């Protein structure tokens, strides 16, 4: 009987070892744990390439820097991948590229018939033209499922509820046991700091913080906050930009129940500059709303000194929807105690817009 109990105990121990060994922690990923990463994609026909890795339009630092880093990882794994952009990059991204000595990726203005990996979006509305006729092989994203993307064959789709797409790519480098070189670390770090407001955003997770801590060392960035503020100072200067250019510098469009709406995000360095931008861009939207071909427009502005933010609302029903989603209303403006990410803004707005659309017979 004693031997039988010993055998049962041995089998239990062996089972636990078998069960937990494959799930190595992120902390231990730098060990020589050889994970056959390409096996994840054995069902995907990458062909001879090239495979274009591309973010949303207009591009921000997450979509550009993540495309660069993920294309590099694919090349390390034997896949002919190249980063592309949808349109001109903003000043923040240009600063990051120059700092880490990267060239701006080439423009891809039409994705039709191309082999594509989407990063940082999952919607044709935010994609470059022709994406509905592209061969989409993978999607790497951290947004909610609002997309209408369809694929002819099963695709690799990785979506995590975290602050930045580059955090997923950082995780994939580690899972694949591919060393992260200084430049690639700088690209991923820049994206994470941008998307999480230097890890201050409400969408920031422990995984984002862990990635940033690792990438700061690998990128040899001595002062993370100083580097972040240098990026933001470039971005918030809005040099030689018209009101329209500033409004659309970080902008995304969505459609729900027949209602189209756009969300713009603008950054200021101080509360005073935030208030000046609210007035300046508010005047422009009021004059030009009817030409923008959207049912609703939302303008979120926050400053980096206090992290306070406002959301200005334009279009029938917009103020009511935002008031139900958030809190204090001042005219056509929602006053937020602290800045929240656009991702969370959209997540809170969407159900209210759905309800409003139902009352309009949409």
UniProtKB/TrEMBL annotation:
Gene Ontology molecular function: any one: metal ion binding
Keyword Hydrolase: yes
Domain DDH: 51-192
InterPro entries linked to this entry: DDH_dom, DHH_sf, DHHA2, DHHA2_dom_sf
Catalytic activity from the UniProt record: diphosphate + H2O = 2 phosphate + H(+)
Matches recorded under Pfam families: DHH, DHHA2
UniProt enzyme class: hydrolase
Keyword terms of this UniProt record: Hydrolase, Manganese, Metal-binding
Gene Ontology cellular-component terms listed: cytoplasm
Ranges where the DHHA2 domain occurs: 237-346
Superkingdom field: Bacteria
The enzyme's E.C. designation: 3.6.1.1
Cofactor(s) the protein needs: Mn(2+)
PANTHER family linked: BNIP - RELATED, MANGANESE-DEPENDENT INORGANIC PYROPHOSPHATASE-RELATED
Name of the protein in its database record: inorganic diphosphatase
Lineage, highest ranks first: Bacteria, Bacillati, Bacillota, Negativicutes, Selenomonadales
